[in-house]
Write a structure and sequence with these properties.
This protein is mainly β. The chain contains no helices and 10 strands. Helices cover about 0% and strands about 50% of the residues. The N and C termini lie far apart (about 35 Å).
């Protein structure tokens, strides 16, 4: 069990079959690496999407600029539709759960 206060970022990684984001033609991508970066763009954590394409990362609470970035993908996949990186600022007293930080590959 984790002790202390934590923020959480979660989302999904999908393969976009028809280049139309956020529709029923999305296939989950499992085992895709997602990196957590600090304000200096240094990797401070890593997770992988599960069999349903979902992921979540817990971050110790405290101030800071945190980015979630889809790691480099193997060809022929590349990020599409959504940005390849999402950035959130956490304040010292925040205990947040940021959901739907989604990525699509094509």
């Amino acid at each position: 069990a984790q002790l202390g206060n934590f923020n959480k970022i979660s989302g999904a990684v999908n393969y976009d079959i028809n280049d139309v984001c956020d529709d029923e033609f999305q296939v989950p991508v499992h085992n895709q690496r997602i990196d957590l970066l600090n304000e200096n763009n240094e990797i401070i954590g890593t997770t992988y999407s599960n069999e349903d394409g979902n992921y979540n990362i817990t971050i110790p609470s405290g101030p800071g600029l945190i980015s979630v970035k889809i790691a480099d993908t193997s060809e022929p996949f590349e990020p599409s539709c959504f940005p390849s990186q999402s950035t959130t600022f956490f304040t010292s007293d925040s205990l947040l759960s940021i959901n739907n930080v989604d990525f699509a590959l094509r």
